Amino acid sequence: MSGLVLNLRPYEKVVIGGIVLQNGKRRSSLRVVDERAGVLRLSEALHPDQATTPLTRAYYVAQTIVSGDSEEPIAAPVLARLLDDALSGFKGFPFHAEIVAAREALERASYYRVMKHFRPLLIKEAAILADPRVKLPKGETRKLRLATLTATFAVTRR
């Protein structure tokens, strides 16, 4: 038997196919056999107000596809553009390979995998954009990096 197995904590909420479900007072497991079903743990969800940086915007777009809040034919090209911009914007950083892996997951229409690749990068991105001690690639200043990244993504934000 194949499919996604969710191990839910007590009272944990999950969105499956656009419907919010809440677990009972005990731990439980749930198997989702339809691989096309959008499954999103609410603990992994970003609020729209949190989508303020290049990677968080891409993560949020992937999240809206998974949760069913956005239609795939409309949101997937936006996500592709965001990922392509992130690939060029974060070239030279150690986590560039994870962005490449997220782009490959997008090509397979595996939006949850895109989120999974991006989740650990959100903290790293915040550190890069905020910490003046983080070393940038040769020839770039922090102000230029931030201006380039935010200008690139300003067009896609609603």
TrEMBL record:
Keywords: Bacterial flagellum biogenesis, Cell projection, Cilium, Flagellum, Repressor, RNA-binding. GO terms for molecular function: mRNA 5'-UTR binding. One of its GO terms (biological process) is mRNA catabolic process. InterPro entries: Flagellum_FlbT. This is Flagellar protein FlbT. It comes from Parvularcula dongshanensis.
